[in-house]
Specification:
The protein contains 38 helices and 35 strands. It is α+β, with helices and mostly antiparallel strands and 1038 residues long. The structure holds zinc ion. Keywords: Aminoacyl-tRNA synthetase, ATP-binding, Ligase, Nucleotide-binding, Protein biosynthesis.
Length: 1038
């Protein structure tokens, strides 16, 4: 039995065998004041229905016969409920979950009053591979949001999506076919295989999402490879083209030789420890108008411009050298070669001296501006390489003169364009040198042998001044994890020149959670260069353009697009581009000339696919208007600042000038318990199913169930990276158990409560119950506030605090009245009324998270009317403004402080062996009544004080001249033991409440006898009922 530890913990194993009701209750009372840890355990015990049932059976069978208290057990209202302490998730959850799709459809037709809608636009996961905990985190956060909104009466729109195109799936498709065959595959075959693969993955992933209770339109998800989606995407592309945002141009792009395609910024990841070969190369000056250089040259000296680069393979493509007009440069002597002068930045001189191991005596200095017009010669190809002025040149590293290869650098390209210098980009799709570099390098990999060969060549030519390894940050292909290069090719771009500003303005109107996301996204968008949207792959949406064979000119206009869209609509979407020939794809008007055209072979960047989903899904399906409709929320991992959040923003700003979302919520990534980022390569990932269904060894990996997985998500502060591991789960389970205990107490205590018959009006509730309702009101307010702000961990925290506070005071106090009073006693019904409301609030706060448990609670709570519906069809909890009562709150907080001190005193007295249980004691409380009318308040509660303090007698007296206690530390004094007039020993404690009231508590052993029914020491004779119980029994008999 699970509760064995109670007895062991308490150090008295003998109790284990004594399961009579009385003994159990005695134990409970003992534990009640033996410290907080035991108090928690005591609740476990009390609420264990099996224990109580056993107690009952042993009582009713009269077993043992020696206990004369048994006859009264049947007159008590002990808690009864079939709500189990253990979730038993694996068996029970499947029986409890209301189908998430049915529920979604239900709210679509029923949550229509008030016109509140909630459009949650799903960021499509990639249709590739098994789901990991990151997926669970993402989808569950979304579902918590949606279920909360649904409970608050919103009509939720949530269409789950999948991102289907792109290289990883294309590669998987290749993998699935034998190599020799895949080489011969046509684009149409590749696309068919990729599509089948993606479809299979979607089915697998969907099954998992649904098993986690994610509510959504599972029968009509959006997939980016669906024809209607592709059509909408082309429409967006063409809208942007017509508005002048899309152009075709030669530009440097990030190129991945390992994927053989151009990459967008979002597809790069940076390796901080990339090691390059850095080289210093000298370029001989042939002409200059600089007086110092001219003078040296006329003396017969040879002058060289020294450049530095970390990409030696780009030297063959060098077309210029850049200097900064403002910087100071020095003409220095080469120590070891006669009549040899070098031009370097003055600022870099010291470090170059040490790098080169030369003195480099300065001959003259001048500004960069004075180098304008200087000509050098390319060391390998004997062509001019002019010196240009550029603001991008800084003196931070290298030589202060920048090697400029417009074919392989963004800034290089820009400055050469200004000077009409030709672009040379002698590298092919696979990253190999083309024949433009001459026979000695052609075919070599530029990131491998080609690089080494260039260095060797420069060395042989005597132009290599110095070479060293250089560790720096370098972009890699995020999929292949291999370095990329910059290459100038002909591509399609989105021109962002005029978009930056309006995009940043649009971001300012969005509520970002956490708020730091706003700056992050703005600065990323602000820095972004034109968006290259063409890819050289087959598995994607084609760029719908024809090229004239002769001129290479692109053909795209209203007629061609309308025709292509028509073909796509009729013939299965983008596949038709690959299946049909040019004549079919061209409109009537051009058909007779179709032989003059070829169709484009580029596909679109997958970020363009998903970035147009606001249009392809929300506009297409009539959920938002095309002109100015926005989704209420996008919620994804923080990496989407550079991905989907950004691509969606850019397409929407280009097409309509606004962001496509109202709220953008980001979450962090997963860490293991040691704080290490989870990754496949580290082997520290955790499958969601391990938490839900457990591992083969159930002791090591118990089956925690879906609600636990969801509770982990809800309890995590997702604004940062989140940890998970066995210890975190064990701690979480403790919290869940506490909540279940609390719920079980409420359900058990209300076993005979039917709100329609037994509810008490607010005005007739006892003050204590009103106080509890005030706490419930605050709980609802705070939890709602946090739910509204998407701060679920704070909502859960509020709930945990509430559960702890309410069970350690309110539940403790009302037990006596719930159990010993007659069924319809007004105090009892008053507390039951509050418990009923309280449970409704607690359950609704839990419901968006623990979808199964909350159905279970709901079924138990409303068992009197045999509920057939779901907790989610009941709307948010009912609460009333009148529950808010701050005055009462303060009063009762003073009593709680006083009660804590009483408990402390009782514990001391018990430790001394004077009493066994608190209700063997009576107490006298002297309190002041000046700044806080504590005395007045206590006397007004006189009839309930024994319950409040859980003792057999309470006397309250005014405290008119309390001793002065000084400072915080002296707020409560040590216990004094007095023995006045040689009578009974008194135990006394002095204290204060927040310096506003003082009290003195005196405790003594009760002189009365224990009542065999209620166990208060209030009977005049041994083994007889107390006066209260005599009356109660009369009521019960009536
Ligand atoms: Zn009694």
């Amino acid at each position: 039995m699970n509760n064995n530890n109670v007895y062991v913990h308490n150090g008295s194993k003998s109790w284990f065998t004594l399961l009579s009701l009385q003994k159990e209750r005695e134990m409970i009372n003992l534990l009640r004041h033996s410290g907080s840890k035991s108090t928690t355990i005591f609740k476990d015990t009390l609420l264990s229905s099996s224990l109580i049932r056993q107690s009952f059976s042993s009582a009713s069978s009269g077993g043992g016969g020696a206990d004369n208290d048994h006859s009264y057990s049947a007159t008590l209202n002990l808690p009864k409920t079939s709500f189990s302490m253990k979730a038993n998730a694996q068996q029970r959850e499947p029986t409890l979950l209301k189908d998430a799709y049915q529920l979604y459809k239900w709210q679509e037709t029923n949550n229509v009053e008030g016109g509140k809608t909630w459009v949650f636009h799903d960021g499509p996961p990639y249709a590739n591979g098994d789901l990991h905990l990151g997926h669970a985190l993402n989808k569950i956060l979304k579902d918590i949001t949606n279920r909360y909104k649904m409970l608050r009466g919103h009509r939720v729109n949530y269409i789950p999506g999948w991102d289907c195109h792109g290289l990883p799936i294309e590669s998987k498709a290749f993998e699935s076919i034998r190599r020799e065959k895949s080489d011969r595959m046509t684009p149409v075959e590749i696309r068919k295989t990729a599509k089948a693969y993606a479809e299979k993955e979607i089915r697998k992933q969907m099954a998992s999402f649904r098993s986690w209770g994610i509510m959504g339109d599972w029968e009509a998800p959006y997939i980016t490879m669906a024809p209607d989606y592709e059509v909408a995407q082309l429409e967006t592309f063409y809208d942007m083209y017509k508005r002048g945002y899309v152009y075709r141009g030669i530009k440097p792009v990030h190129w991945s030789p390992s994927s053989r395609t151009a990459l967008a910024d979002a597809e790069l990841e940076y390796n901080d420890n990339h090691v390059s070969q850095s080289i210093f190369v000298k370029f001989a000056v042939t002409q200059s108008s600089n007086a110092h250089i001219l003078a040296a040259m006329s003396r017969g000296d040879k002058v060289h411009a020294v450049i530095w680069t970390t990409t030696p393979w780009t030297i063959p493509a060098n077309q210029a050298i850049c200097v900064n007009a403002q910087l100071e440069y020095s003409l220095v002597k080469h120590d070891k070669i006669d009549n040899h002068l070098l031009i370097v930045s003055s600022e870099r001189l010291a470090s170059l001296r040490s790098a080169f191991g030369l003195d480099l005596e300065v001959v003259a200095t001048f500004t960069g501006a004075q180098l304008e017009g200087t000509q050098t010669v390319h060391p390998q190809y004997n062509r001019p390489s002019p010196v240009l002025l550029g603001d991008h040149v800084v003196a931070g590293s290298g030589s202060g003169l920048v090697h400029t290869a417009p074919g392989h650098g963004m800034e290089d390209f820009a400055i050469c364009a200004q000077h009409n210098i030709a672009v040379l980009s002698p590298v092919d799709d696979e990253g190999r040198f083309t024949k433009e570099v001459g026979d000695k390098f052609v075919g070599m990999e530029v990131l491998g042998g080609g690089n080494t060969a260039v260095i060797e060549d420069l060395s042989q030519l005597g132009c290599l001044l110095h070479q060293e390894k250089y560790t720096h940050k370098y972009p890699y292909d995020w999929r292949t994890k291999k370095p990329i290069l910059i290459r100038t090719t002909r591509q399609w771009f989105v021109d962002l020149t005029d978009v930056h500003q309006s995009a940043i303005q649009a971001i300012n109107a969005v509520n970002m959670v956490p708020p730091s996301g706003s700056n992050r996204l703005s600065s990323m968008v602000g820095r972004r260069s034109d968006w290259c949207i063409s890819r050289q792959r087959f598995w994607g949406v084609p760029i719908p353009v024809f090229y004239e064979k002769e001129t290479g000119e692109a053909l795209i206009n209203d007629e061609t697009i309308q025709h292509i869209l028509e073909v796509f609509r009729k013939h299965g979407g983008a596949d038709s581009w690959f299946e049909r020939d040019v004549a079919d794809l061209l409109p009537e008007k051009y058909r007779s000339e179709s032989h003059k055209y070829v169709k484009g072979s580029d596909t679109m960047d997958v970020w363009f696919d998903s970035g147009t989903s606001w249009r392809g899904v929300l506009v297409q399906r009539g959920i938002i208007s095309k002109e100015d409709g926005v989704a209420d929320i996008y919620l994804e991992g923080s990496d989407q600042h550079r991905g989907w959040f950004q691509s969606s923003l850019l397409t929407s700003v280009c097409a309509r000038g606004i962001a496509p979302y109202r709220n953008v919520v980001t979450h962090g990534f997963l860490l293991d318990e040691k704080g290490m980022k989870m990754s496949k390569s580290l082997g520290n990932t955790m499958a969601p199913n391990l938490i839900v269904s457990g591992g083969p060894n159930k002791t090591e990996n118990p089956a925690y169930g879906v609600d636990m997985l969801r509770m982990w998500v809800a309890s995590s502060d997702y604004s940062r990276d989140i940890s998970i591991g066995p210890n975190i789960l064990i701690k979480l389970l403790e919290n869940i158990k506490k909540i279940r205990n609390t719920v079980k107490f409420m359900l058990g205590s209300n076993f005979d409560f039917n709100p329609e018959l037994n509810q008490i009006d607010y005005n007739q509730l006892s003050d204590l119950d009103k106080f509890a309702l005030h706490k419930v009101f605050l709980l609802e307010q705070n939890a709602s506030k946090y739910y509204d702000q998407f701060q679920y961990s704070k909502a859960m925290q509020e709930l945990n605090i509430f559960v702890n506070e309410i069970s350690s005071f309110y539940f403790d106090v009302i037990k006596q009245r719930l159990y010993v009073e007659s069924k319809d006693n007004i105090l009892r019904r008053s507390s039951q009324t509050v418990l009923f409301h309280m449970l409704d609030v607690v359950n609704k706060i839990l419901a968006p998270v623990t979808v199964h448990t909350s159905e279970d609670i709901y079924n138990h709570q409303f068992k009197y009317r045999s509920p057939k519906e779901s907790v989610f069809t009941q709307g948010w909890c009912k609460f009333e403004e009148q529950w808010y009562n701050p005055e009462l709150f303060e009063k009762w907080n003073h009593i709680i402080t006083l009660r804590n001190e009483v408990n402390r005193l009782l514990q001391i007295v018990r430790d001394k062996g004077v009493i066994g249980r608190p209700d063997e004691a009576t107490i006298t409380i002297m309190v002041t009544n000046d700044q806080v009318p504590l005395y007045t308040h206590l006397t007004s509660l006189q009839s309930q004080l024994e319950d409040i303090f859980c003792v057999s007698g309470v006397i309250v007296e005014p405290y008119n001249a309390p001793p002065q206690l000084e400072g915080e530390a002296a707020m409560t004094s040590d216990v004094l033991i007095t023995n006045p007039h040689g009578g009974q020993t008194l135990y006394q404690l002095n204290g204060g409440i927040d310096k506003v009231a003082r009290f003195q508590i005196t405790c003594q052993k009760s002189t009365q006898h224990k009542c065999p029914r209620c166990w208060r020491h209030q009977s005049e004779k041994e083994a007889t009922l107390c006066q209260h119980c005599v009356k109660r029994l009369e009521e019960i008999k009536l």
